[in-house]
Design a protein that fits this description.
Elements lengths: L1 H26 L3 H7 L5 H4 L7 E5 L3 H17 L4 E6 L2 H10 L5 E4 L5 H11 L3 E5 L5 H9 L3 E7 L3 H9 L1 H8 L4 E4 L2 H9 L7 E3 L4 H8 L2 H10 L7 E8 L4 H14 L3 E7 L5 H10 L5 E3 H5 L9 E3 L6 H5 L4 E4 L12 H4 L5 E3 L7 H10 L2 E3 L3 H12 L2 H17 L3 H13 L1
Parallel strand pairs: 1-2, 1-4, 2-3, 4-5, 5-6, 6-7, 8-9, 8-12, 9-11, 10-11, 12-13, 13-14
């Protein structure tokens, strides 16, 4: 089966390599990462590593980096002698990792799953343990680790309903791949049952919780709030509706709700954070079509343009959303009024915010259930329910504060997973 996989990989590589080459030539994007992904330019990066036990931790992108940070901190706290190599798949993820995972000893890009790139990178890193954050299974890489006697682990493992459906259709293939995993630490019982359902032996699976609780609780600090408030030039009388990670089809509902808030509360501003910043121009077009012309982008503010009480701020940069949630008087989390599975509502909950979201929360169903029980998470079906729900919450500030405090308490109460994942990794280092 892996032979067939490699044939298909080579076929897909031709248009893929052409795409990356054109992107590098035209935009300069991927220049820092692409050569490393083929196994090059890593020797000098890894030259400073000390001899001894090594752990390689891989976090695909921004979300996984957040979960990995407290795990790495716990490893280094328990075993300072262990060298930690940290990899990401995206340049945005790597930039964030270098700022957030300060205890790592080296940062690299994860190789493409070609045998030559995988082999070259593993020969340079020489890990004793490889820990994959969440669940992204690369057949050649995991097989190569197994062949070299490297223990491969899954930490903070999550399998979304959509991914589970795809894995099930090709379970005969993934069952063999999962044989290369020594142990899987999963976020919840549901995730544990899903990985068992695609072929992992039950004895290898443990439910250890969500390390993102540890990361978010630690990150939500007054200093971080003050920093982002200063960068946004926040005025004392302003209140904000923060709409995070919105997708096409959601901005209309957010705008409708915001206009109703604005009619009741003139001091309200809208901070709109599209899930994909390349949609910035389209989002601004939707805002203007709705009659909201007084707009400024975060890039313009950062570039020195002073804010003059614009009603709308469109955030056209990546990696700031967690901090921006701290500004919200009230919050909407996107990817939920459209069938995208939702976004991470814990980020806003860590700041003690009341959070609205749509019916599509399949990827964060347990988090939604916890926050709904606390009264901090409110599920709505459409723009009308969004605006009515927000006006109701804002009419009773004390109730809103109590709800937000209970939501933050949920985050704090679920801390401790990072320590458990660190223990699982350390136990394998010897």
């Amino acid at each position: 089966m892996r032979f067939l996989y490699n044939i298909l990989l080579l076929i897909a590589a031709v248009p893929g390599l052409l795409f990356f080459s054109l992107k590098m030539l035209i935009t300069g994007k991927y220049r820092n990462s692409f050569v490393q992904k083929l196994g090059g330019r890593q020797k000098s990066i890894l030259a400073g590593l000390k001899e001894g036990r090594r752990v390689w931790i891989h976090a695909v992108s921004v979300g996984e980096v957040t979960a990995a940070a407290p795990i790495v901190a716990s490893i280094k706290n328990r075993r300072p002698d262990v060298q930690v190599v940290f990899s990401t798949s995206t340049e945005t993820g790597q930039e964030m990792a270098k700022g957030l995972v300060k205890e790592a000893d080296a940062f690299i890009y994860f190789p493409l799953d070609f045998p030559f790139a995988v082999g070259k990178t593993l020969d340079l890193v020489r890990p004793d343990v490889f820990a994959l954050v969440e669940t992204e299974l690369w057949p050649n890489f995991l097989a190569a680790c197994n062949k070299r006697g490297i223990s491969s682990l899954i930490v903070n493992g999550r399998i979304s309903p959509r991914s589970f459906g795809k894995y099930q259709k090709t379970g005969f293939f993934w069952r063999r791949i999962l044989e290369n995993i020594a142990e899987a630490g999963m976020i919840s019982d549901i995730d544990a049952s899903r990985i068992a359902g695609i072929g992992m032996m039950a004895g290898k699976i443990k439910v250890l919780g969500n390390a993102k609780y540890d990361a978010l609780a630690a990150m939500a600090s007054p200093a971080l709030h003050e920093d982002i408030a200063g960068r946004f030039q926040v005025q004392n009388n302003e209140k904000f509706l923060v709409a995070g990670s919105t997708h096409p089809g959601e901005e209309d509902a957010v705008i409708e709700a915001y206009k109703k808030l604005l009619a009741r509360y003139p001091e309200f501003r809208l901070i709109l954070v599209p899930r994909h910043i390349e949609r910035t121009r389209d989002v601004i077009g939707v805002l203007r079509q709705a009659g909201l012309d007084d707009i400024i982008t975060f890039t313009e503010i950062s570039g020195g343009r002073p804010r003059r009480n614009e009603n709308v701020i469109v955030v056209d940069v990546i990696g700031e959303l967690f901090k921006i949630y701290s500004l919200g008087t009230i919050v909407y989390c996107g990817g939920s009024l459209v069938p995208k599975g939702g976004q991470n509502i814990l980020e806003a909950a860590a700041w003690g915010k009341v959070i609205f979201y749509g019916p599509s929360m399949e990827d964060f169903s347990q988090e939604a259930a916890l926050l709904e029980d606390a009264g901090a998470g409110i599920r709505i079906r459409d723009a009308r329910e969004l605006s009515e729900g927000m006006l109701k919450i804002l009419a009773d500030p004390q109730d809103a504060r109590r709800r937000g405090e209970r939501g933050r308490a949920v985050v704090l109460a679920n801390m401790g997973a990072a320590e458990r994942y660190a223990e699982m990794i350390i136990r394998r280092t010897g």
